[in-house]
Amino acid sequence: MTLLDILEHTPLLLIFLVTVIGLIVGSFLNVVIYRLPLMMQRQWRNECLQFLSQPADPAIQERFNLFLPLSRCPHCQTGIKPYQNIPVLSYLLLKGRCASCSVAISIRYPIIEALTGILSAMVALNLGFSAALPWALVLTWSLIALSFIDLDSQLLPDSITQPLLWLGLFLSVFTIFASPDSSIIGTISGYLSLWTVYQVFKLTTGKEGMGYGDFKLLALLGAWLGWQFLPLIILLSSCVGAVVGLAMIIFAKHDHQIPIPFGPYLAAAGWIALIWGGKLNALYLGFVGI
Question: Collapsing DSSP states into helix, strand and coil, what is residue 32?
Answer without folding.
Answer: helix
